[in-house]
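From the pipeline queue, job 12 of 40. The input is one protein chain; the requested action is below.

Action: predict structure.
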Amino acid sequence: MNQSPVTKIPVSDGVRQALETSLRGVEELLPQDEWVKKLARSEATGQPLRIKLGLDPTAPDIHIGHTVVLNKMRQLQDLGHQVIFLIGDFTSLIGDPSGRNSTRPPLTPEQIQFNAETYYRQASMVLDPARTEIRYNSEWSEPLGATGMIQLASRFTVARMMERNDFHDRFKAGNPIAVHEFLYPLMQGYDSVALKSDLELGGTDQKFNLLMGRHLQQEYGQEPQCILTMPLLEGLDGIEKMSKSKNNYIGISEDANTMYAKVLSISDTLMWRWYTLLSFQSLAQIEALKAEVANGRNPKDAKVALAKEITARFHSAAAADAAEQDFIHRSKGGVPDEIPEVALSGAPLGIGALLKQANLAPSTSEANRLIEGGGVRIDGGVVSDKGLRLGAGTYVVQVGKRKFARVTLA
């Protein structure tokens, strides 16, 4: 019996370039051969692929570590594909158990709404809002009802759910797992069914949930999505992942001068990692810059370019130029043109209390530590006496390289 030949879609230079863009900085792209076929079909038909990123608005603010996956979305958006920014307002009510050793408390609908609005506004600094489809998974999750939820749950086994590392580890350690937590990966996977997703992006900690989308799409007779995981960005210290709790982060809502100075503070080695994951320059441009540094160009030139690019993205080119000048001015011992004005009472006031009340140190003990390290200046002079008391007057107080205040003490 003769079988009809399988039609092969040729892989063009455009598809190869799209694959290179897709693979830039990624942890995994699975299955890669299926993604190549999707790219080739899209090029042949002119039909954009549907690329999904789901984010639960568990907090209102994001740092540049969160933008690693958004940058990838923007790269794919610039290739002409349809990106979908999915806000998990329904799944936030369950609470994502990924990477947790305890049950995550669910948010209230009011918290979710507030966080979602702030989150999308910040994400729009990376994505092109005019070409971004915004969806909320309550659209299809709430109409499922009890019957639909039971039918959905029948499509995955408890044994396979327990293969997931965090569930397995918690069960082995005797830590409780609530039944509703099993619903989370099911509901995230069902999002891919509802959106007919071709590719879903996420952090490395989301791999199980992303694969659930593939499984459920097959269960519902759809072509399964590919999955792409992005690594977690190292913070300013170059060791731990970027985190507010570790104070090694750059918030995307921070002022331009602080953002610029923080990028310049990273190591020369970490700089290239940040270039790959955060810069919009092509890999060829980055490699050329790396070669120039290897041949003797000052690495600070490359770091300045990165700092200006990142600052301009979240502020403006003019703000990035001004931040550069501000940094040069400060490095020469100058005081910025604009610094916070603080009025305090209680003269004479101890230096530790003054730093705390002026929001230049979180506590008097931390203020004392800063003084011991030589990190506190008053009117340009280093403070070495933790017992210093300041009388009435106006002082320019500096902590570290970036914190200033003009304090008027009465």
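Job complete. The chain has three domains: 13-230, 256-331, 341-409.
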